[in-house]
Structures are given as structure tokens and as C-alpha cells.
Amino acid sequence: MVYKYFTVQNLAWxxxxxxxxxxxxxxxxxxxxxNGLIFGxxxxxxxxxxxxxxxGIWAALAAWYSRGAALFYFRAFGTAYFLDGVVGVFAGKAYxxxxxxxxxxxxxxxxxxRLVLNTxxxxxxxxxxxxxxxxxxxLRS
Length: 141
Description:
This protein has 141 residues and is mainly α.
């Protein structure tokens, strides 16, 4: 099986690269649609961009430090990120960027848009939880 070639720490390095790319997306003009939104759907606000940078730094530190730190990263980060997506789908606002607590901001009304905006959080958070709670048992130490 291919997973025997991976370690939890290597996957944390992969998450580091992914979050570096996500933070850099705001500065890639070729993926910005005519409406000024990334892929025509969403705009990464500065707080979201900063959260992506911090998530990547956390993943890098965990990968560098130890297998246990990487496991903690996947479990804690994955749960928080996944739940942010769930809250975003149902409430129309996310909590990690603190929009849920700003009562002057309008929630996203359209359910399709809510799903599009929150699918990355559900997928990335779900993958991190899967790595941290299930897959780690099959990965090389």
C-alpha cells in the first residue's frame, strides 16, 4: 500500500505547502475572476489569509518537532477547521475568522454559495481529522 511510504510528519509538511499556496492565492492574478473573486466565488480577507499562514506555520512546526506534535496538529486543527465549515454551512458565517460574532455582518443567504464557500474547510478539516484519528495507525513512524 502507498500509505506505508508516508509519515504523519511528511503529511504535515504537505499541509504546510498547501496552506502556503492558499495564502499565496490572493496574489495570483490568473485565478482572480472578472468580479474580483478567487475562481469567481470567494475573496480571502486579510484575517482568513493570516489564518492560512498561521495554519501553515503550525503544520511546519509540528512536522519539524515530532510525530506526536504532528498528530496533535491534525487532530486539533482538523476538528476546528471542519467545525468551522459545518458552522459556515448552517449559519452562513464562520467562526475562525470571527464573522460569526460580528452581528453587523450579513450571513450568506444562498445555500449553494454556503456549500461552495465551506467545502474546502470540510474537505481539508475532514482529511486532517482522518489522518489524526484513523490513518496514523497505518502510517510509518
